[in-house]
Amino acid sequence: VQEDPMCIFYTSGTTGAPKGVVYTRRWTRGLAIRSASPRLNWQRLRCMLLPFPPYHFAGFLGIIVALVAGSKLILMERFDPLRMLAYIQDEKVTQIAGSPTMYRLLLNAPGQERYDLSSVRCITFSGETCPYDLAQALHERFRCQLENIYGTTECSLISWTDINDSWEKAATTVGKPVPGVRVRIVDEERHPRPVGERGEIAVKSPQVMLGYHNAPELTAQVLDEDGWFYTGDIGYFGEDGYLRLVDRKKDVIIRGGENIYPVEVEHFLQSHPAIRRAAVLGVPAAGDIEEIWAYVEVRPGYGPDRGRRGHFLSRRHRPLQDSRTRPLPLPPAHHGYW
């Protein structure tokens, strides 16, 4: 029966403990049709490099696309930027499906300029927002098509940029809703908001999950009786019909009546050559004010020079800092891969 449970994906996202996302048989068939059929292009899909693990939704999706297209597929046991560069050069990879963090590490890998990456026809990124400077750097290094794909484990694909869109469009938007997917922006009471106004992204499609495994109360918090899934992501539609992703709803920092979106500060921090990764959050302070804290992972060879980074931060924000050379902690579902 098409509505019978068929598989469970575990996701931790930004909330900590992994949750089991239950999908039906109909979901698998629909996913293959929606994800692969509109995007089949032998020139681009002759050889796909997939640095995501298969248990990650993006990895599972990449495998489906490769199988339907009949393309060669290269999987990686662990993410390694130098090995990734070698695969691209030696196997003449034509398409890469990764995350912005992976691509930044790839471009910053020692000696990356020595590799021949001219075979790549398309780069897709998902899993997190892509900073503009990173998209520009990818465009300049690869000179190929860039595509932005937005989705969640709970509702699969939500939106994507078109194969004919410019790299600037892929850097500043997450595209238009995938065929068959309805997307709306809602306020705190879950009422629709007009074009241009920010709010929570809600999704309704045949690919939305049945619910969280053995967690009916948690399911009821994000999935209403009409089948709308509330992502917890903040975004808005532009006049051009393209969806813009801003940040996670729970992560927004309120300071002096102003909404500060941590992901924007993280992108700014990660543009500094000494910073490998950054995590920004709000910390309660006196007078119901939230201070901005930034936890940064410093690249090898750089010392914890707080003075220089303080000057750098003063150009935009000035959060308190905790510099560290140890890797930042990752959600449980990512352990063992990075």
Topology:
Blueprint lengths: L4 E7 L7 E6 H11 L6 H4 L1 E4 L6 H13 L2 E4 L5 H11 L3 E4 L1 H8 L14 E4 L6 H11 L2 E8 L3 E5 L6 H6 L3 E2 L4 E5 L12 E6 L6 E2 L3 H7 L6 E9 L5 E6 L4 E3 L2 E3 L1 H9 L4 E10 L5 E9 L7 H8 L6 E5 L14
Parallel strand pairs: 3-4, 3-5, 5-6, 6-7, 18-19
Antiparallel strand pairs: 1-2, 2-12, 7-8, 8-9, 10-11, 11-13, 13-14, 15-16, 17-18
Q: How many strands, which pairing sense, and closed or not: the largest β-sheet?
A: 7 strands, mixed
Strand content: 25-35%
What is the overall number of helices? 10
Series of secondary-structure elements, N-terminal to C-terminal:
EEHHEHEHEHEHEEHEEEEHEEEEHEEHE
Low-confidence stretches at least 5 residues in length (pLDDT < 50)? Answer: 319-323, 332-338
Helix content: 25-40%
Strand order of the largest sheet: 4-3-5-6-7-8-9
Oligomer: single chain
Structural class by sheet pairing and helices = alpha/beta
Give the overall average pLDDT.
83
Number of strands: 19
**Morphology call:** globular
N- to C-terminal separation? 38 Å
Radius of gyration: 20 Å
